[in-house]
């Protein structure tokens, strides 16, 4: 999956408008324009499409964590220069305050089965003997599960609208 795909899916799931997307970046002390956001969200075949580089995606995910969980005191984490599905999954787990059981439930919502042991392998250090690379299929199904649970207008009564953020926050 490309960073642009992940960004589009998160935006749709959380029902964020352009202003909210800009606020998420601002939560990680980054300034982006409405035009940049628009270009990142365009379809791959659109002439105005721009690729979202790893550092920008990491900044967005750090901003999402700050938005959902609150900013930590002191220096903010530096965005990674290089991202992979494992890091994206870890950051989304933190942002949505998910435990392993929660992730497994989200995957089961879309009919994807994964054991706790398989899941924990994604969060290990790459040099650990039980580390496993998170493939696109796992991340895609996880994002779809998030959408089913959190998309406010998809007819899911248990859905939670995360777009309701206090306007005083910046």
UniProtKB/TrEMBL annotation:
One Pfam family matching this protein: DUF1456
Protein name: DUF1456 family protein
Species the sequence originates in: marine sediment metagenome
């Amino acid at each position: 999956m490309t960073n642009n795909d992940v960004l589009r899916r998160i935006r749709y799931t959380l029902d964020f408008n352009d202003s909210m997307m800009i606020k998420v970046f601002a939560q990680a002390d980054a300034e982006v324009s409405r035009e940049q956001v628009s270009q990142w969200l365009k379809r791959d075949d659109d002439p105005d499409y721009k690729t979202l580089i790893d550092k920008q995606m990491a900044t967005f995910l750090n901003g999402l964590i700050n938005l959902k969980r609150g900013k930590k005191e002191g220096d903010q984490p530096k965005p990674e220069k290089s991202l992979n599905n494992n890091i994206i999954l870890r950051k989304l787990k933190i942002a949505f305050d998910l435990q392993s059981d929660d992730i497994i439930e989200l995957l089961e919502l879309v009919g994807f089965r994964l054991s706790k042991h398989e899941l924990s392998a994604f969060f290990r250090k790459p040099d650990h003997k039980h580390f496993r690379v998170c493939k696109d299929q796992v991340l895609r199904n996880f994002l779809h599960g998030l959408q089913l649970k959190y998309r406010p207008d998809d007819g899911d009564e248990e859905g939670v609208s995360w777009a309701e953020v206090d306007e005083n926050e910046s």
